[in-house]
Amino acid sequence: MSRIVTRFDKTSTADDVAAGMDLRGHNAIVTGAASGIGIETARALARVGAAVTLAVRDVEAGCRVADDIARDTGNVQLQVAALDLLDHASIAAFVAQWRGPLHLLINNAGIMACPQSRTHEGWELQFATNHLGHFALALGLHRALAAANGARIVSISSSGHLASPVVFDDLHFERRAYDPWKAYGQSKTANVLFAVEATARWSDDGIVANALMPGGIMTNLQKHVSQATKDKWIELEKAGIIFLKTPQQGAATSLVAAVAPELAGIGGRYLEDCNEADIVENDAPADRGVRR
Fold this sequence. Notes:
It is globular and about 50 Å long. Helix 3 (59-73) links the parallel strand 2 and strand 3. The chain is α/β, with parallel strands linked by helices. 38% of the residues lie in helices and 14% in strands.
């Protein structure tokens, strides 16, 4: 199995990747499209003609983003729909209102390193948001994805997955001390495993899924990260030790997974900096840079 390599790299932008594409007639959903790299993912898809649904918790914010993208791209095929990944009824309502084939499902929304909190079912918040909500969404939209005859699911993970496997014996930190980074890491590992298993189960239906690390991007995702830690990341970037991306650069790998011809019909891969990642040995230390 050869490693997937494109002509893009860590400095490429979402618009660079999408340039020259024609996605007219393609329907896309981007979760969490009211902020961060979700905005730029939706913008790049709209710029090349896709009909994009911004699936967001804050509909007013989503409408402002959609208006801005429409002015910027000239594409008015933008819809804003309410979606709360922690609310089963919200997910079900979103699925129920969907009509037609779905070519791209970009599972972009997420939370990071938040204080311990649980859903009303007792589920740990990061695992419930980052994995379980998107799992339920993809499952509900399976028929629409299959109808596209070549759909792609994009699962936004993180190098933070190195912080923890999925601890099946204690998914929700009921018997171990809560650690916000381990909880985040577990949810991001789940995003990767979802891409592998969704491809295994659904490729015969014409659906493939890939996971990715978008890179270090300073967005509202880090609202629970201390300012001291953020300042350290900035110092490391100034020293040339890490590379912080703009939101447009952060969205580039999402666009590779969504539209790059090199990944047509291929799933179960993990991407970073617009290419398939190198294999990391099992005993490699966790990345301590900026995690997305």
